[in-house]
Amino acid sequence: MGVSRATLSRRFTHLVGEPPLAYLTRWRLELAGRRLRDTADALPAVARSVGYTSVSAFSRAFTRQWGTPPSRHRTGHHPP
């Protein structure tokens, strides 16, 4: 892109409203939430599908984002 990381981050934050890493994390966890609701995929598979290599790291990030652990998030939804 021809700009420094700092400049890219500043421009991205200005345009999108949040820093690039926060946006990426939120987007990945939104995808994970959708998969938990819409599929019966095992938690490790969901974590891997959104880029986490550790289920515990995924679970901590998910809980921080949504206020509930992934297993509880799924409990309220019935996969097809």
TrEMBL record:
Keyword set for this entry?
Answer: DNA-binding, Transcription, Transcription regulation
Q: Which residues form the HTH araC/xylS-type domain?
A: 1-76
Instruction: Give the highest taxon in the source lineage.
Output: Bacteria
Q: InterPro entries, alphabetically? A: Homeodomain-like_sf (IPR009057), HTH_AraC (IPR018060), Tscrpt_reg_AraC-type_HTH (IPR020449)
Q: One Pfam family for this entry, by name?
A: HTH_18
Protein known as: Helix-turn-helix transcriptional regulator
Recall the taxonomic lineage recorded for the source organism: Bacteria, Bacillati, Actinomycetota, Actinomycetes, Kitasatosporales
